[in-house]
Design goal:
Blueprint: E1 3-5, E2 11-17, E3 22-26, H1 37-43, E4 48-52, H2 71-84, E5 90-95, H3 97-108, E6 113-119, H4 130-147, H5 149-153, H6 163-168, H7 170-181, H8 185-196, H9 206-209, E7 216-221, H10 225-237, E8 241-246, H11 253-256
Parallel strand pairs: 3-4, 3-5, 5-6, 6-7, 7-8
Antiparallel strand pairs: 1-2, 2-4
């Protein structure tokens, strides 16, 4: 299996396909590297496509130290994959947790970013909701530890923003649920508590986001309630950005509407 090794000695499993301009796909909290299969099959015909499993998601390493799961650790992991593959600049595409991550790469290392796609990005960023989002994330970590990933797949994995996926594509949704149930429970707990439960609101970075000049596409489903307001915020603050709102679509836009 191919691995990239981070500065803190975490091994990250990655996959790549195709040739040409590189695209790095970064997955959401409830997904993993397999979530990008529809995109790798299509874009892999024209681009060099790379995806990887985040720390805490097997077959990548699952660090035992809870402090190793901050949003800055996760941001640096994306750079470690690019460095390992000797890629100076790439198109960065992220969903949810992955969208937050690639935006952090752009904020901290703009020279590495050719363009951004921020899909379903910014959940919990609304000022009135951030504290509650952090608490819910910490509570979810406890559920992972006490009940395991299979139980979480039947609760968190069936939240309101994912029901449209199940209605449209029962087979695809079943695959998503099965993969979520396979996640390492302790790794997911650490990520939920550290990354999800500790990351600042996107609004805290407003001044720096306004300085970014690379082109960006913001994608949000109109059934993804917690990402709609942050999507408009990103559209307003990212100078060279476009906003695509997908009708009757929830959170996992890459799986729910892969053709779009």
């Amino acid at each position: 299996m191919p691995y990239a090794v981070t500065s803190d000695e975490v091994k990250l499993y990655y996959e790549e396909v195709g040739q040409g301009t590189p695209i790095l796909f970064v997955h959401e909290f409830a997904g993993d590297h397999r979530s990008w299969e529809p995109q790798l099959r299509d874009f892999g015909r024209r681009y060099r496509c790379i995806t990887y499993a985040a720390r805490g998601y097997k077959p990548s390493d699952v660090p035992s130290d809870p402090a190793a799961y901050s949003y800055m650790h996760v941001m640096r992991d994306a750079l470690s994959v690019l460095d390992h593959l000797h890629i100076d600049r790439a198109h960065l595409i992220g969903l949810s947790m992955g969208g937050y991550t690639v935006l952090q790469v752009a904020l901290n290392h703009p020279g590495r970013v050719q363009s951004l796609v921020l899909a379903g990005t910014g959940s919990g960023s609304e000022r009135w909701y951030t504290e509650d989002f952090h608490k819910r994330s910490r509570d979810l970590a406890v559920q992972f530890e006490k009940e395991g990933s299979a139980a979480v797949a039947q609760t968190y994995g069936r939240s309101a923003s994912r029901i449209t996926f199940e209605i449209k594509d029962p087979r695809g949704f079943a695959e998503f649920s099965r993969q979520l149930a396979e996640h390492d429970a302790q790794g997911s707990a650490h990520m939920s508590r550290g990354f999800q439960g500790g990351r600042p609101s996107l609004y805290d970075f407003e001044a720096d986001i306004r300085k970014l000049e690379m082109p960006a596409l913001i994608i949000v489903g109109d059934e993804d309630q917690r990402c709609i307001e942050p999507g408009f915020f990103l559209k307003e603050t990212l100078t060279a950005s476009g906003l695509a709102i997908l009708p009757k679509t929830g959170h996992a836009v890459n799986l729910e509407e892969p053709d779009l």
